[in-house]
Amino acid sequence: MNNAPKRLEPRWPAMVALLAVGGLRLAMPESLSAGPAWLLIAVVAVLTIPTVWARYRGLDTMNKVLGYVLTSIVTLDMLWSLYLLIAALPSHKEAPQDLLRSAAALWLANILVFASWYWRLDAGGPRARELRGVHTDGAFLFPQMMLDQQAKREMGEQCWSPGFVDYLFLAFNTSTAFSPTDVPVLSRWAKCLMMVQAFISFTTVALLAARAVNIL
């Protein structure tokens, strides 16, 4: 039995990340998004309320389901905007500045969205990681997991567990280096998600941004 003290992970960074995705949508013209520009951030804000309520009431299953629903909505909205942006390129209807701004917004949204998925899915999710106390197994092999017990005690990391920033760093590296860099990927679902994220990043940076620059 693991008697390590349980370390509660703050959930607000993940909520802020999804709200930020909604905010990034405001930087895009409405022709490249589903509905009004403010719609996504409004939906995220509304769904965040019952998600946070379920968290503090100890309704773990409800909190988990609402988290999946919220992240799925943001993901689908991002993918739809990416499709609209690609479809708009041949028509030359959008201003080059709008294309550049939209590509940058989608690139950042891609990082935040997949960081949220890694955080929600790895090792059973944030609540399961909290209950275990010490993170020793999961879809990603973080450097702290490879330290021996003595090194962990010396570094004060004997109760280490990944937080949202760790997954955000992983997602950022995937979108910039197209690889996990210092964090090996162990599970198939994580490898599939990272391939999708890298493909979206490559599309926005190499195709959309480059096309917009050529139009200038």
TrEMBL record:
Show the stretches that span the lipid bilayer. 12-28, 34-53, 65-87, 99-119, 192-213
Annotated keywords = Membrane, Transmembrane, Transmembrane helix
Key word Transmembrane helix present:
yes
Name of the protein: DUF1345 domain-containing protein
